[in-house]
Amino acid sequence: MARAISPRKKLMWTALSWGIGLMIFFPIMWTFLTSFKSESTAISDPPVWLFFDWTTENYSTVLARSNYPLALMNSIIIAVGSTLLGILIAVPAAWAMAFVPGKRTKDVLLWMLSTKMLPAVGVLYPLVLIAKYFGIMDSRILLVVILMLINLPIIVWMLYTYFREIPGEILEAARMDGANLKNEIIYVLTPMAVPGIASTILLNIILAWNEAFWTILLTTVNAAPLTKFIASFSAPEGLFYAKLSAASIMAIAPILIMGWFSQKQLVRGLTFGAVK
Amino acid sequence: MATEHSKSSARIMIAPAVFVLLVWMLVPLCMTLYFSFADYRPMRATFDAWIGFDNYVSFLTSSSFLSSLGTTLWMVGGILSITIAGGVVLALLLDQPMFGQGIVRILVIAPFFVMPTVSALVWKNMFFNVDNGLFSYLFKFFGAQPYDFLSQSPLFSIVIIVAWQWLPFATLILLTAVQSLSSEQLEAAEMDGAPPLSRFWYIILPHLSRAITVVILIQTIFLLSIFAEIFVTTNGAFGTRTLTYLVYQRVLESQNIGLGSAGGIVAVILANFVAIFLMRIVGKNLDN
Amino acid sequence: MNTKQRMLGTTVGLGLMAGLASVALAEEITIATVNNGDMVRMQSLSPQWEKDTGNTINWVVLEENVLRQNVTTDISTGGGQYDVMTIGTYEAPIWGNNGWLVSLNEGMADDWNADDLLPAIRGGLTVDGELVAAPFYGESSMVMYRKDLMEKAGLEMPEAPTWDFIREAAAAMTDRDNEINGICARGKAGWGENMAFLTAMSNSFGARWFDMDWAPQFESEAWSNTLNFYLDMMKESGPAGAANNGFNENLTLFQQGKCGMWIDATVAASFVTNPKDSTVADQVGFALAPDTGLGKRGNWLWAWSLAIPTSSEKQDVAKDFVSWATGQGYTALVAENEGWANVPPGTRTSLYENQDYLDAAPFAQMTLNSINSADPQKPTVEEVPYTGVQFVAIPEFAGIANQVGQQFSNALAGNQTAEEALENAQALTLEEMEAAGY
User: Does the beta-carbon distance from C63 to A232 stay under 8 Å?
Assistant: First the structure.
């Protein structure tokens, strides 16, 4: 039942929301603008907004100084790879917890989430030694596995809360019809779970993309993703705001664009069981 | 029959996740535990496998430990309050009829996609910097003295940066909850002549409580391990050293792996307390 | 299988082997370095070396703190991820002592002349007679000042000023309405940031980190004088955000014309006199770091150097690269491409005998004098058990000095007094040193 609303009220809400929205977005906008300025324009007093000599010089400098395509590729592989691997392990677990809850289900879930609070640096040396032992330092597979492990609790938790909202009666009915567990998952559950799985995937790609401890310390060249690429341009000698901005935009643009295009899917499943 | 069958299948299906997490937890954790009882300082080429509880004693008795606990609480608490208060306001705002709602939503969720290092660098250099930051120009424009955010209110500055990143997350979850609120109920209240504030207090807020608990839970998990934002902005100076950062300093800056490992174990134990505490609240809220 | 086939097989096999052999010759090495201007230039010129030798380089160029995280983790676990690492005079003796670095006494290119290295720099990178790292550029610290502002203040900068003069001049040059700060100096916390400056400064005030029994000395009068002088001077004439300013922030300020004087690394000289980036390029004068008449000046000694970890499997190729990047040929290459003023300074005697360089770099003589006046073996007025001018060459120093630096930075921000900062510094240093078994 739609409420009648006066146009003036609607205009007011529009102005207010746009104002706040633009304020929140402003730092990204400003970084974007700065990335097209020369270094001296970037710190000019007073700041210039739109009317300056737009230049793409910063982008070409950044491209010349580092291997952006490789870093981008690594970020994609690590973020997508770790997420998919995580989903593969988490779907059965979350399914079982949601539909066949045992006495311990809650405890297991609890414990899984608590592993997420382990301070990363505490296990740095052990992990480096293990990675070295297996000869997989600076490899994508190492990061895929580590980031999968870090985000697995969140994946399981998200899927669990989502699965729980699927009405159990449907499954009962399927079982009555003689569907076995496999068919139950493939034909009954999966179609209903797709939105939840989709948004879980999206959220975890974002989290993995932005992870900036392990991706920096466990890589050198071959597996170094965009988080490490940024570290080449932070705080060098001399003026650097424009180049830093260009590098920043290059690092966040892919995920930002992906996020914008898929925001509907992302939002649909991003409830963590918060809505009932 | 069927239940027995599905119970055992269920166990098999949970097994992989539990197994990998166990390995993840146990192998590095056992090594950390082992190191925490050792005098392990690679820079001195020292490795003494058993020195008892010395590392724990010196970690827990050092004055930096208690202050880092306080800092952690302030930081997490500050970020949580800002994101939740801001999130509720934004969610209610975005639920109003307006032009270009989709675009506004895109603008609002954008910070969530920015990696922590980038947002910390951008805020630190282009906004907080006292000579060339935008805030300084703003202050000067209004005839005020530029304010040095990072040394005068360092904790607050970091809270702002992190809250900016997590506000979209809170907003999204709360927005879904707001949208599920039945409008009949609200309208009934409106007709009864309930003023907006009491409508908010007695109908909207209780409805959101569940979503708020979820936001608290998920964010706390991530906020306890904030690292990049501190590393980039203050390097732990001016009282911004959280427990995670203290452990980092022990391990990487002082190269005292034994002491750092002890700190890591202490942090894990404390985190588990927090987890159990949180779960109690959340569990109650989610169970109905 | 007939003969023809077998022969074909052999030929293919040989061909493959030959192919493998030539592939094996062209190695790929991984080099970790800081994103400072001189290193970025090295990276951009390195295709020359790749072309000459047929080898390829994987560059890992990182901000200083992140670089340190990475290489320290690698070296202390024997990771073997890097073939060449960029390290400083602080790490070199410690890592060398642990046997983690390859000796460069042998195996360097024939024309790589070790005797040409400046003695002070070479000494700092030598462990038990073995050179463990090759200096890429060396630096001390000195006073850079604005001639025009000095003149306006009616003062004249002596070649070797005292701290009192600096403070007085700073106050005279300060013009807050026009955003001119008399003095810029490091305030950002960190052992390589404010503590480099303050430790070197404390030397000239007669202070020291430890006495001969390794007891911390922050409660001494000399330290109190140092810190109070620094805080007062910065409060009178320093920039507003001084507690967050490191080398880079101050460089920007100076280039924008917002500093009257700046006491910092000698390498900054080529940045502030470069008209492309600096608005005050033609007005910069140089003087030795200040003293208080006790016989030590407040200047430090540092060399960013290239070292080869023993965990590297390509040490020969790595040595070839290090020879190239730190040799005289590289200096000539930079001069040819970017002009003499931009060559990496402070490592070789021959550079300071080169008239082209002396003509192009007005700061050359002052740099050399500053480097020569620093003595890592006897850094302080009173006797000390350690070496290092702006650092103490023990593994615990970085961790301790980071924390002490935070105390001092906090005092500069006005959040605590000098006395509180020193008291805290003393307590935490004592604690850390006891934990380390001193």
Answer: yes
